Amino acid sequence: MDVKLTWLDTGYCRQLELFSRQGGKLKMIRFHALAGLIEHPEHGLWLFDTGYSPRFFEATSAFPYSLYSKITPVVTQAEQSVRAQLARHGIAADAVQGILLSHFHADHIGGLRDFPRARLYCFESAYLHVKGKTGLAAVREAYLPDLMPDDFEERATFVDRMAPTALPQKYAPYTTGYDLFADGSLLAVDLPGHAKGQFGLFLRDRDHGELFLCADAAWSSEAYRGNLLPHPLARLIMSDRQAYRDELHRLHLLSRQCADVRIMPTHCGEVWETTREGGDFSWRS
Ligand SMILES: [Zn+2]
Question: Which domain holds residue 79?
Fold first, then answer.
């Protein structure tokens, strides 16, 4: 079943390009934090991650959480939060049925508290890894506990407790995933390495064909096309460096073997630039 995906830009952090991939230049680039709005014909509105929101600044106001904003200086405005962007288009926060959390880094869960009624889908392994972490232990995981709703567990559905399903053969080397609505529309795939329990999402957009939202398994389209690892310093923040290397290679293989599927990393400037035109809420027409 086809869905409609619209990317929302929630702000960015500045980083050296050289930090993000081999062959990158010694220049500052913007790492946009995109959130995906998914319209499902039967299940309504869903989000893939929530990007930044102004809560990021409150959550990083005191030490040691302030270290996070020093390492990745963030630029975002109140009107860029997902909730504010939806409101401008007449969509109430409560219309969002659920949020798919690729992982728990702060640039993906920043808007979570703005959707107090949404179901929250994540891997249990990802949640258990950050659960209860505070202070430096949290910062080390790029996790800010103040961004989490108090009733997270009551609203959570753990994707990795579902029965796995075989993926279409064309998605090789990805072979198994989780069919979230049991209709083939959203297929979640384990993407370890960057963060424990990270997952990506295969879907078919009604206008743009097959897409693979790969979260942070690659930071840019150049990286998966060229199988270009980040700078060794950046690799230090990966939860499992060998798994990250393996995942980037799998993405690279998919891009070579299956031209039908467009791979979309969350922080890729090219994804944002090429989808913003005409992508802005065109699903409503
Ligand atoms: Zn990220």
Answer: 4-284
